[in-house]
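Hi Y.,

Following your request, here is the sequence exactly as I used it, all 50 residues.
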Amino acid sequence: MESTLSGISVLLSFIDEKEDDFESRFKACNFFKEEELDAIRDYCQIKFNK
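Below is the corresponding structure, written out as tokens. Let me know if you'd prefer a different format.
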């Protein structure tokens, strides 16, 4: 459970930094674009390598 919460925390940090309206997109079932998934992967590598 702790690792799940950690992953959610990293995802929320990524979304906050992007300053895009993800909430509206998610409500419309318009989730991540392919390039955003790549950016999330890169963001996770940076965050977890610290």
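The chain has one domain: 2-48.

Thanks again,
Q.
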